[in-house]
Amino acid sequence: MVSKGFRKDFLWGGATAANQLEGAYNEDGKGLTIADISPGGKLRLPLLFSGDFPLEIDREKYTYPNHQGVDYYHRYKEDIALFAEMGFKTFRMSISWARIFPNGNDQEPNEAGLAFYDAVIDELLKYKIEPTITISHYETPLHLVKEYGGWKNKELIGFFEKYARTILERFGKKVTYWMTFNEINTGIMGSFFSTAMRNATETENYQALHNQFVASSLATKIAKEVNPTIKMGCMSIYATMYAYDSNPETVMAMEEKNCMFNYFCNDIQVRGEYPSYALAYFEKNKIEIERTDEELAIIKAYPVDYLSFSYYMSTTVSIDPKHQDDKIQGNFFDGVRNPFLTSSEWGWEIDPVGLRIALCDLYGRYGVPLYVSENGLGAIDTPDEQFVIQDDYRIDYLAKHIAEMKKAVVLDGVDLIAYTPWGCIDLVSASTGEMSKRYGFIYVDLDDEGNGDMSRYKKKSFNWYKSVIASNGEEL
């Protein structure tokens, strides 16, 4: 039966990550993570992909905005009260592995870190806000990079298993919704954030991903043992892909890219096995990874319960050489310019219909509940003297995307359970380490140079999103 609208228990909320939000990077026993030594500024991503930066803090050469974040570590009660005022049903957050195990492989967990997340979860539940917890969101402990080389090393599977067991046993009776690895498919491109490796080969990238697939399934196994009602999800970037023209060779190039970027990780985590196209790709490119029968059995036995994904933009594929000089760039992928779309201030193409296409595609392929875990517009917000921000551009972006989500539910029969737009409160950008690229409904008084008192102010979009939630998506 086709729905007349979003389900009554639809989880409206917002999404954040510990390393971009919390600050307090070295307080209460927390160890360093890969985020803590990642330089800030517009050169952050090029540096991370080049591997040309030290695995240590170098304040003479770089800045590190995430060290203070927006001080959520000390202000979480104030921020959660604002989320509650908007009517949040869920709040997607992450736990910093290094707050629990400072080195990633310590014998005993850090009780201060566990106590902090206990307090945060209890504060959310006080307002009847369901936490959605990402176990690993671009925050591998730095020690595991220096001593083990990151996720290409199978030793990390056991370390992650212990970490997952610790937090699931501590919080699993209070928290229903979990995700394992954030945007796991960025590891295909050699993302330092994802697999904690520098200058890796393609084989090492896929080995690291395989190790994460095993770790994800082990986390799912533990979750079901701790509390059978837990819902464990995977999380990836989805970029709706278009062929620039109807040349069959163009369409084939698009399909190949689509399979390895949009489907590969989801196929394994939802369906529980390596797809044939990936095995053919490995053979063609002489990629040999170590996969034991036991590991494959674990992946098969413990798939995820739901599929979550971030959606910010679509991408267009062309094999015509004349198009290659006119490209748009996202965080982890690029494409040729789509003449039918406009772009954000950061050059990301805006495509609300692409979200409906994504939902139909993923639900048709997998048939499991879907969770839009990130979506939003990064923009420069300019407050007046009273810190009033008229962010109609953000309202327009989100309203159009929510409208397309509703079409997917009502007209296409998609089982959509949640929507948590990215950065419900302004935080440090993952890709650039900037504060000026803002996503939130709540403005934080902090600039790229660290100036400001970090006071919180409601943007125009705050009350707009409040009415969206109150009407269950009927008032846009």
UniProtKB/TrEMBL annotation:
Its EC number is 3.2.1.-. The keyword Hydrolase applies. The active site is at 374 (nucleophile). Keywords: Glycosidase, Hydrolase. PROSITE patterns: GLYCOSYL_HYDROL_F1_1, GLYCOSYL_HYDROL_F1_2. It is an enzyme of class 3 (hydrolase). SUPFAM superfamilies: (Trans)glycosidases. Belongs to the glycosyl hydrolase 1 family. This is Glycoside hydrolase family 1 protein. The lineage of its organism: Bacteria, Bacillati, Bacillota, Bacilli, Lactobacillales.
